[in-house]
Amino acid sequence: xxxxxxxxxxxxxxxxxxxxxxxxxxxxxxxxxxxxxxxxxxxxxxxxxxxxxxxxxxxxxxxxxxxxxxxxxxxxxxxxxxxxxxxxxxxxxxxxxxxxxxxxxxxxxxxxxxxxxxxxxxxxxxxxxxxxxxxxxxxxxxxxxxxxxxxxxxxxxxxxxxxxxxxxxxxxxxxxxxxxxxxxxxxxxxxxxxxxxxxxxxxxxxxxxxxxxxxxxxxxxxxxxxxxxxxxxxxxxxxxxxxxxxxxxxxxxxxxxxxxxxxxxxxxxxxxxxxxxxxxxxxxxxxxxxxxxxxxxxxxxxxxxxxxxxxxxxxxxxxxxxxxxxxxxxxxxxxxxxxxxxxxxxxxxxxxxxxxxxxxxxxxxxxxxxxxxxxxxxxxxxxxxxxxxxxxxxxxxxxxxxxxxxxxxxxxxxxxxxxx
Length: 420
What we know:
single chain; alpha/beta; TIM Barrel; seven-stranded parallel sheet; six-stranded mixed sheet; 18 strands
């Protein structure tokens, strides 16, 4: 009887095992074998920080770059995007964008002259913007709560030496509102957001007084100073000599007393020397601060910008500037290579604000990416004075990824056909 009982139990065990095997055979094992959330296949990857300029795949897992190599199998990813024919780059960084948007007319600080970042970033492949000092120590926390925290775009900022930030001319010229210690205290309170100190928009007789206050904050915080050089009495040679390596001179292709060219259209020797010392020169296009009459002679002499800050605001976006990809396209058509354009829009921009965790696609880095289309055709590009150059190349953002999430998809690269 015991032997029969054992045989009966053995038969039941075999039946259960067989049914389990049949069930396992019909289960979708591929789901359990998928290592990655998203796979970008077939694109031309440009990652200047890592010296990559080749066709490679990029795998993303939990918002992080998980793998960069050739021929990653589609079966290893939950979703695959075919980037064949496009450039795949780190998410672009706009180091000069006025985004302290609010309801006050005529102001950049909590004002109607600034713009909401998410409305203009992702559609241009931008995943990070740096506000150029719209807020000072008095209103920075309002900026943080109102714009920085609710934005999907990563928003970093320079803090203005003026306590009220860019709130209007009367504030910009108030030396009593330019407090070194209070500005430094807000910088030290938010080191993960504030990347430096800003000085500009001062119309007083002696700009060196507020300039030195802003420089002192930047020096003590070990951060760069952003000099917005629209000062009526600016002496460019003198101010460049006072800047330190890593400090940023924006509006680099402006005319008038801000021009970096002499009367014969040659770059001043002291400008080249400033660059050799490590001073950075940002485009800062804006609505009135970029002229082909300055840019073309400069680039012909090898004086390219370090960064493509757009000076985005309510007016510039509807004028010659338009957007960051338009600015980058201008330099492509003035002779800069695609590799050099991406270098300045990603890795150099990240380093300029001491955020070397950004601007590259190293394994383990945050998965901020752009898929760019370099279109060929007949295009026109306009400067701040309303003058045009013609070109045959123009950049568009096909798809933007922020922390592993698709936030912009121009032509549905990641979308599923409706009938499937």
